[in-house]
Design a protein that fits this description.
This protein has eight helices and 29 strands. The chain starts with 14 loop residues before the first strand and ends with a strand. The N terminus is likely disordered.
Length: about 675
């Protein structure tokens, strides 16, 4: 290929260079994980004072210079040791219960599942074993029977729903932890620790590329690599080509390249000295492995899973696997874009365009929940939802300039994405009894009576366990039950799917799952404004040189915002999206003893609700090879979801999901 473009290979020695490190990460929990262990005692998982990370890694960056072309590579191998705390998180997959809303006629509330007992096992018990009169044969009798079990301390079966007969008392809307996550799909046992390791060739070989020039203006870089357009820390506006792996360290690792997911790219830079600029062309052919695209959070559970999902293996449950080949976002499709960067009047600037995967991703719901409002074809039959990364377009602008009057470097990034998809439905619910019955809104008439296919579903399991004829509780024949369409409070179809929690209209047994409304597309502008400045604190703090101070303001602005769209800030949490989501970060580094002792402090605050994080740190340098970083990651959310999954809440946002994730971290590096 090189010969075809006129590149000759002179006979000369090959220059070889390499560098790398051996590194260990150790972290110690400073607080308890408050996700409930079980429904009986409501104990937290705990973890305070326990080791949450014992990670060991090695990295080598190597380059071979053949004169006419160069080959570069970055290899990193990691081993994440499973700590005792993480073993507890894995066991919590089945022990963590979810809360469901009790729509039954019984004073016996709240009810709790036995610790670690899957509700499926409860259904297998003969219901008549505890009643002399034998098994119940009507829904009213079954409700009474369930009340008896609760009062007797045998909470094995949650109450069934009310009937439609007039004059019945108000149903009890109190949430209770009657089923654990393994039963309804909030949790499935998953070996999430395997997600932390780079132990196969694809993961170890993080980058492998060839570079060469054609003439004086054209510079090629072909292969697996990282292309960085943005210049920000913590949060990003223009760094949009690559997704980030946030599972093992969240967003807290000091170097972005350790978290960024490399891609196979054709990267061409064309110098245009006449205009003091460079045109960069990027093409991604879609040859990467599917999970190389998009951001990956700790949805399988683990130390950085959002509160209170610490023990939930979401993507391996019925709630939602990843679909990397969705109709509106296929990882195999080509991505492309360009960036013009230059200097004008001593101001550095860039203009860019990118058509590629939305790294944030969305949740696409199963059509059985209302197919007309799902986002494209659904590819995960048998699951409640799927996680996907839609294809979007982004137009970007950045600038940086030295401001002499204030002795600082000012920076700005702006990224505009038209028609960016969002999940909606801050108050949506799933009817657990209906899921699996094959019932949708189309199955119900004006009187709300079900005409569902003859699918056993959960009611059929109850009938089988009770030893009563099929159809007694409505598994094979229409019964006088309320509308049991799966989705509740769909913003697009409130007339058909809304329910009143006081009367249990149109509801059986519901689980709160915010975000199951239709996907909407909104124009979105991401803005970063920041500056870097050297502060002379030598007389005040005794530093040996000026201290580096950086401030960044990040704002996500939905320009055509409409409150009635009911956009959720985060799927699974009930806080509504704000028109402006704004976070301010502030970091300073001090230098002592010839830069061998370097304390620092980083602070971030959500200006919409004043949730905060604080990261004090200390970097130590020992000779040419040893580096030690000590830090405390402290989260101070004023709003967070501390109850189990399924409870209704409406104020948890990004930093609130990190509640009770405080930790001490030691990073020890030997570099060569």
């Amino acid at each position: 290929m090189l010969a075809l473009v006129g590149v000759s290979l002179p006979a000369s020695a090959v220059d070889f260079e390499y560098s790398g490190y051996l590194r260990s990460h150790l972290s110690l929990n400073l607080s308890n994980n408050t996700s409930w262990r079980n429904g009986l005692t409501e104990d937290s998982i705990g973890g305070e004072g326990e080791l949450s990370m014992a990670r060991f890694s090695g990295k080598i960056e190597a380059s071979f210079d053949f004169g006419a072309f160069q080959i570069g590579s970055v290899m990193r191998a990691t081993e994440d040791h499973l700590t005792g705390y993480e073993r507890d998180l894995k066991r919590a997959t089945f022990l963590n219960p979810v809360a469901v809303t009790n729509h039954a006629l019984t004073p016996a509330h709240p009810l709790f599942a036995l610790a670690g007992l899957p509700a499926g096992g409860a259904f297998a018990l003969p219901l008549g074993a505890f009643l002399p009169a034998g098994p119940p044969t009507t829904i009213d009798a079954l409700n009474a029977f369930s009340s008896y079990l609760g009062q007797a301390g045998i909470p094995l079966l949650p109450p069934l729903p009310c009937q439609t007969a007039a004059g019945l008392p108000t149903c009890d809307p109190t949430p209770f932890t009657g089923w654990n996550g393994a039963f309804v799909g909030a949790g499935a046992l998953s070996d999430y620790t395997g997600d932390y390791d780079d132990d196969d060739f694809h993961d170890i070989m993080r980058e492998l590329y060839v570079t060469f020039d054609v003439g004086e203006r054209f510079h090629f870089k072909l292969g697996k690599q990282q292309v960085v357009w943005g210049e920000t820390d913590f949060f990003r506006a223009m760094d949009i080509i690559h997704g980030y792996d946030l599972r093992w360290r969240s967003f807290l690792e000091l170097e972005n390249e350790e978290l960024r997911k490399p891609l196979i790219l054709a990267n061409v830079e064309i110098d245009v000295p006449e205009w003091d600029g460079t045109l960069q062309l990027i093409y991604r052919p879609g040859w990467d492995e599917a999970d190389d695209v998009g951001n990956r959070g700790a949805l399988e559970g683990g130390r950085w899973a959002p509160q209170p999902w610490g023990g939930a293996g979401v993507t391996q449950s019925i709630i939602g696997p990843y679909n990397y080949h969705a109709a509106n976002g296929d990882a195999d499709d080509a991505n492309y874009g360009f960036r013009w960067s230059g200097v004008w009047n001593q101001i550095g600037y860039s203009l860019s365009y990118w058509r590629g995967i939305d790294n944030d991703g969305i949740v696409n719901r199963n059509p059985v929940l209302g197919g007309s409002s799902s986002y494209g074809a659904f590819g995960s039959a048998g699951n409640l939802t799927e996680l996907m990364f839609p294809m979007i377009e982004t137009f970007g602008l950045s600038m940086n300039a030295y401001v002499e009057s204030m002795d600082l470097v000012a920076r700005a990034e702006v990224a505009f994405t038209p028609n960016k998809p969002y999940n909606t439905g801050t108050d949506t619910f799933v009817d657990l009894f209906a899921f699996g019955l094959g019932c949708t809104d189309a199955n119900f008439g004006a009187d709300g009576i079900a005409s569902c296919p003859a699918v056993p579903g959960l009611l059929g399991a109850v009938e089988g366990a009770a030893g009563v004829p099929a159809g007694t509780f409505g598994s094979t024949a229409p019964q006088d039950l309320y509308d049991i369409a799966v989705l509740r409070n769909d913003p697009a179809n409130l007339a058909a799917t809304a329910y009143d929690p006081l009367t249990a209209t149109n509801a059986l047994m519901t689980l709160s799952v915010p975000g199951l409304g239709p996907v909407v597309e909104k124009d979105t502008l991401r803005i970063m404004l920041g500056f870097d400045k050297n502060l002379n604190l030598m007389d005040w703090l005794g530093t040996q040189r000026p201290s580096f101070w950086t401030v960044q303001l990040f704002d996500t602005w939905i320009t055509n915002f409409d409150k009635d769209d009911d956009i959720v800030d985060l799927f699974g949490f009930g806080a509504p999206k704000r028109e402006h989501s704004t976070i301010l970060t502030n970091a300073i580094t001090l230098n002592y003893d010839y830069d061998t002792i370097n304390p620092g402090l980083a602070v971030g605050v959500d200006l919409g609700n004043f949730d905060m994080f604080v990261i004090p740190s200390l970097d130590l340098v020992f000779g040419d090879h040893w580096r030690v970083r000590l830090e405390a990651d402290i989260f101070l959310p004023r709003h967070s979801k501390t109850q189990n999954l399924g409870f209704v809440e409406d104020d948890t946002r990004l930093l609130g999901t990190l509640d009770n994730r405080d930790q001490l971290v030691a990073r020890i590096t030997y570099q060569f």
